[in-house]
Amino acid sequence: MLTLDASLRISTNVIFTVVGQDAFLLNTRTNKYYALEEVGVRLWELLNEGRQLRGCYQLLLNEYEVDPPQLERDILELIGALMENGLVEVIEE
C-alpha cells in the first residue's frame, strides 16, 4: 500500500516540460504523455529535487491553503497514477 513514507524515484525514461502553469511528462518508453496542473507540477519539481514524499507533503501544506487529509489523498492518488504510467517508481529499501 502506498503511503507518504514511500521512497520514490523518477523513471529515467521521462521527459518533463512546463507550458504556462501546466506541465507535460512524456514516457519515452511508451510514447504516452501525462499532463499535470499547478500543484502536480510543484510536486513533480520537488520529487525531481530528490525530496522524499513526506517532505513534499509538508512543503505543499505550507505553500497551499489545503486540508491536510485531502492533500495526502490527492498526493497518493497522483503518485498512483504516475506509477501506473511508468513515470515514477517505488524504491524498495
Q: Can you give the mean pLDDT?
A: 94
The outline comes out as globular
Oligomer: single chain
Number of domains: 1
In short:
The protein has three helices and five strands; from the N terminus they run ββββαααβ. It has 93 residues and is α+β, with helices and mostly antiparallel strands. The chain is globular and about 35 Å long.
Describe what you observe in this structure.
α1 packs across α2. This protein has a 3-stranded antiparallel sheet with strand order 2-3-4. It has helices at 38-48, 53-63, 68-84, and strands at 8-10, 14-19, 22-27, 32-36, 88-90. The protein has 93 residues and is α+β, with helices and mostly antiparallel strands. β2 (14-19) and β3 (22-27) form a beta hairpin.
Characteristic key phrases:
93 residues, three-stranded antiparallel β-sheet, 5 strands, globular
Provide the fold topology.
Blueprint: E1 8-10, E2 14-19, E3 22-27, E4 32-36, H1 38-48, H2 53-63, H3 68-84, E5 88-90
Antiparallel strand pairs: 1-5, 2-3, 3-4
